[in-house]
């Protein structure tokens, strides 16, 4: 039985529809990340789950019970916002326990909960301070502490790390992940950052324009994106896209594209077409940069094709080099070993492993 479900949820503000037919079901202990560009409806969806915003149609269910008419405080949910919304005049301890005090939780119970959370988040030494005396990361922890004292059925997080600098964000990400493992609790987490989504989620819902483009485990979205939007949104550096057509020669389906004056034909006999290979169809071939490599790193399996190309752009990060080539009228990015000697304009062997490609219908943008 799912802990949380959204069924055909729609939301309009006035005449503008911002959520369309949202269907989600998550199990106990799952970490669902809602990810998508700014304005795609993530916060609105989270607020509807929390009961802070009313749906226009559809249902929210918690433990199989429709909660559309249940007040936020009675939904057994705790929420952490991007702006931590701490009370500036209260100490950390008071910020964490204030909600319990309002709900008339007896003092010994409040103190036990505070001690538990302080230990969990490693903030015991900060309890007497005011928010202004804390760093960004510490404030973030206090905001989480306020949600954690409640042991709710579901935690909701709305971009909780957006106000932190890059290094702290990565550190807090690790802590949230550890927290999830330790508490074995159910979390719905909103972010616009696909790296954060990939590293935290047990399940990701990629949202675009108020709809869910794809819902599934991170690796499935990465390996088998069901549309161009998801393919492009997930993964950094981004997937390469090459425009071409499908041809069938001697019974073998091929991806055919024009590179400068010559034709390039890539065999697709291994590709699992969802609806069969339609000859003559305009398609977009997607290949991730890690499958475009040099002599030193190339996986020279049976699906690997070799081209001779000259680097147009090179960027090193110490660990590897991101190298771009002009290819079939567009750009092709690959990842090369840091110590491979390359020069702009000097042709080299580029190996493309076709075993993990994705094909999309250029017009509908759906996976083929
Ligand atoms: N209270 C509101 N009234 C009118 N439009 C709103 C309101 N809240 C959000 N929107 C609009 O709904 C869309 C989705 O917003 P939001 O859920 O905040 O997106 P996200 O969190 O993904 O950035 C946006 O176009 C936003 O302008
Ligand atoms: Mg938002």
How is this structure best summarized?
The protein is α+β, with helices and mostly antiparallel strands and 368 residues long. It has helices at 42-50, 92-102, 107-121, 136-148, 166-183, 194-200, 218-223, 228-233, and strands spanning 4-13, 16-26, 31-35, 57-62, 65-66, 77-80, 154-158, 186-191, 203-208, 211-216, 240-249, 252-259, 262-267, 282-287, 292-293, 304-309, 311-316, 320-327, 330-337, 348-353, 358-361.
Describe the structure in your own words.
The chain has two domains: 4-233, 3-Layer(aba) Sandwich (Rossmann fold); 240-361, Nucleic acid-binding proteins (OB fold (Dihydrolipoamide Acetyltransferase, E2P)), CATH 2.40.50. Helix content is 23%, strand content 36%. It contains eight helices and 21 strands. The strands form five sheets. Strands 6-7-8-3-9-10 form a six-stranded mixed β-sheet, sandwiched between helices. Helix 5 (166-183) links the parallel strand 7 (154-158) and strand 8 (186-191). The two termini are 33 Å apart. The mean pLDDT is 93. The structure holds adenosine-5'-diphosphate and magnesium ion. Magnesium ion binds next to helix 1.
Largest sheet: 6 strands, mixed
- Report mean pLDDT, rounded to a whole number: 93
CA gyration radius, whole angstroms: 25 Å
Bound molecules: adenosine-5'-diphosphate, magnesium ion
Terminal Cα separation, in Å?
Answer: 33 Å
- The CATH H-level homologous superfamily of the largest domain: P-loop containing nucleotide triphosphate hydrolases
Can you list the strand order of the major beta sheet? 6-7-8-3-9-10
Query: What's the level 1 CATH class of the largest domain?
Result: Alpha Beta
**Helix residue percentage:** 10-25%
Principal-axis shape? elongated
In percent terms, what proportion of residues is strand?
35-45%
The H-and-E topology, N to C, reads as EEEHEEEHHHEHEHEEHHEEEEEEEEEEE
CATH architecture identity of the largest domain: 3-Layer(aba) Sandwich
- In total, how many domains does the architecture comprise? 2
What structural class do you assign from the helix and strand content? alpha+beta
Total helical segments: 8
CATH topology of the largest domain: Rossmann fold
Strand element count: 21
Stretches with pLDDT under 50, minimum 5 residues: none
